[in-house]
């Protein structure tokens, strides 16, 4: 995430290592953006090149250096070209470097959730419309929170939000974005399945297809009143629908954008 003196992102300097170490999650360097951990892989992100970093990490933390890269911020992840304020219902979201009156500020960081991906926009639109037709919802879970845009929206609308992600960088960034807007939510690190059963009015799940299929088959996942599901495209939709038909679910509405799908589900 951004920290002084940096006010926005330009180039990302990445350093990948085999292994993980908790001390690498918060390095005292103003150029440090964050530490991405996934399985047994650590990727450290900086605003500037750090040629001495690989040997320092290997010597002090015992990790094995794998590779480094320099990537323009606009080309990272799901795309971050020309991030601008955008509106969903009465909610406006804007990057932290472009504040707007009354808007929700967010630092997109380097995790999923820049605001540009179709699934993010579909989930936000579905949340807004469901809230106005079936809400308000008191208890909301955001599964795989990424940068926290869905968490911000639900908290702003008045829900008590619990967010979870297995990537510690997502957890840190979501908490940071909540603080930027003086909003509260409970944000936890871990595998989603560790937090089952879910007792909630609404579950937000913008996840990859395999994890969605696993969750839909678990009785401990089937306890919420409503679900918003995305993270899959039209070629994957049939498998998701088959899993829904096998459980206590009813599809209320379908959204599609650029080949990606979002389904609004009610527990029947």
From TrEMBL:
GO molecular function (one): protein methyltransferase activity
Protein name: Methyltransferase domain-containing protein
GO annotation, biological process: methylation
Superkingdom, natural source: Bacteria
Record key words, sorted: Methyltransferase, Transferase
SUPFAM superfamilies: S-adenosyl-L-methionine-dependent methyltransferases (SSF53335)
One Pfam family in the UniProt entry: PrmA
